[in-house]
């Protein structure tokens, strides 16, 4: 019997439209990897929202409300760590596995993950894939045209960087889990349960998320300095960024061969870690609800732990709502800065702060250009740094005003949680768990913008940099 040619027409139309849509996606990845990243982030968030809404994902077997499911999906994919539900009691084992998978996917970065999958499937990395991956490691590479300045990761090294990302994630998380397992056993955790909690804590530390798989979070381990130190090490390794790990892997302790990006990241990270701990120690040593009831050693250690966690780690031993307002302001400043670029941490990034600080110092000294370690930092990098700060401050301000208006809560509590969401930290004064649905959606949007918004802006700013064959007349407005 001959096939009816008209019966194939809808199928052919569908296949043609599918092929056309695929071509448009491929064109989008080439034209703007940053926009492609946003698109895939949205798709992942919608997918995980649907999965978290399933009755199988909740411990009581009932579907999770849309607002809570969406917020958890955003917090997971954006590796934030904030939650509107009790992450331990609300989710079933299936829900906890979703969280574990989601934070690892979100931490790697959409473009990096897509490039790794393409490399595994095709056994090679073409020019287009290299450009996409380079856009994830450095937004300034995400636009077309020549890039004359030296790059932290050159195009020819992208394949090695992807291998470093995949291997370092597996190796570091495995090493952290091995170190954490004995501590969990020593704390009385069942050996079988510890087999799950150890890799879970390892992933939450390296991805800088901060979710806990047990009731009470880190409170039962408040006196286990070894476990807390391992978590701090995991947060530090995740926050310095994959390009820095790549540099350290290639050149190890040969500091002269380190890239400028690696030097600025490590120096600024250590400086903020030490200064933050000193300030917390100074402000909270007399607070009976936090460090005032501890001895000198406990107070010092917990100050360093808090300083590390406010950089994007998200773990907490002491209730953040018990800290003085001055400490919350300091914590907000540290959270806003965040970790290193192309890392699992959030914030405006430590290199952004370093570039702006160097620009201020150069201006004060009357230097014609911004310099560091024998290298000149080009003006487009300075413009991107300034734009990222302005963009981040605008998001935080609008979100704080909106949520304060919706909830009527104290503005200092709202500001702290909003910056924690924007910088994907996960620390909270307790406000986030009490938010009504409209405020939950605003906070979810803040987390999303904090994770992908600054990258998109950086790529957009870089894409607008074009050569100009003429100069306009100069006129100096009054500044300051």
Automatic annotation (TrEMBL):
The keyword Transmembrane applies. It is found in: Cell membrane. InterPro entries: Cat_transpt. It comes from the Bacteria. GO terms for biological process: metal ion transport. It is a multi-pass membrane protein. The keyword Ion transport applies. One of its GO terms (molecular function) is monoatomic cation transmembrane transporter activity. The chain crosses the membrane at residues 36-57, 97-121, 161-181, 225-249, 261-283, 333-361, 381-402, 439-463. GO terms for cellular component: plasma membrane. Keywords: Cell membrane, Ion transport, Membrane, Transmembrane, Transmembrane helix, Transport. Its main location: membrane. Pfam families: TrkH. This is TrkH family potassium uptake protein.
């Amino acid at each position: 019997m001959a096939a009816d040619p008209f019966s194939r027409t809808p199928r052919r139309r569908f296949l043609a439209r599918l092929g056309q849509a695929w071509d448009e996606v491929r064109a989008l990845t080439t034209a703007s990897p940053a926009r492609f990243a946003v698109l895939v982030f949205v798709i992942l968030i919608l997918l995980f929202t649907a999965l978290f809404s399933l009755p199988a994902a909740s411990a009581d077997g009932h579907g999770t409300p849309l607002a809570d499911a969406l917020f958890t999906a955003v917090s997971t994919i954006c590796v934030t760590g904030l939650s509107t539900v009790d992450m331990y009691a609300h989710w079933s084992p299936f829900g906890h596995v979703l969280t574990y998978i989601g934070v690892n996917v979100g931490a790697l970065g959409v473009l990096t993950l897509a490039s790794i999958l393409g490399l595994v499937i095709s056994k090679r990395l073409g020019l287009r894939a290299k450009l996409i991956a380079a856009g994830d490691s450095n937004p300034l590479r995400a636009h077309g045209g020549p890039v004359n300045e030296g790059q932290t990761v050159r195009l020819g090294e992208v394949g090695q960087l992807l291998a470093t990302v995949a291997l370092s994630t597996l190796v570091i998380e495995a090493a952290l889990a091995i170190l954490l397992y004995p501590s969990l056993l020593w704390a009385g955790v069942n050996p079988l349960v510890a087999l799950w909690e150890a890799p879970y804590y390892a992933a939450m530390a390296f991805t800088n998320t901060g979710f806990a798989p047990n009731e009470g979070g880190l409170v039962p381990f408040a006196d286990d300095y070894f476990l807390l130190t391992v978590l701090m090490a995991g947060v530090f390794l995740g926050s310095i960024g994959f390009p820095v790990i790549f540099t350290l892997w290639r050149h190890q302790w040969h500091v002269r061969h380190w890239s400028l990006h690696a030097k600025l990241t490590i120096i600024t990270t250590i400086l903020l870690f030490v200064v933050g701990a000193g300030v917390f120690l100074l402000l909270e040593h007399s607070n009976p609800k936090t460090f005032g009831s501890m001895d000198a050693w406990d107070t010092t250690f917990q100050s360093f732990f808090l300083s590390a966690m406010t950089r994007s780690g998200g773990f907490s031993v002491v209730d953040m709502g018990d800290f003085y307002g001055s400490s919350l302001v300091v914590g907000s400043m540290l959270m806003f800065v965040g970790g290193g670029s192309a890392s699992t941490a959030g914030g405006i990034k430590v290199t952004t702060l370093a570039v702006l600080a160097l620009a201020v110092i150069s201006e004060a000294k009357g230097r014609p250009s911004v310099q560091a370690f024998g290298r000149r930092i080009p003006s487009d990098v300075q413009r991107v740094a300034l734009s990222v700060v302005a963009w981040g401050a605008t998001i935080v301000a609008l979100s704080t005003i909106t949520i304060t208006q919706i909830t009527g809560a104290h503005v200092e509590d709202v500001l702290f949680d909003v910056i924690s969401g924007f910088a994907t930290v996960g620390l909270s004064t307790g406000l986030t768990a009490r938010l009504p649905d409209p405020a939950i959606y605003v906070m979810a949007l803040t987390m999303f913008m904090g994770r992908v918004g600054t990258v998109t802006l950086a790529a957009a700013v870089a894409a607008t940099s074009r050569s100009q064959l003429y100069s306009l007349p100069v006129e100096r407005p009054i500044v300051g």
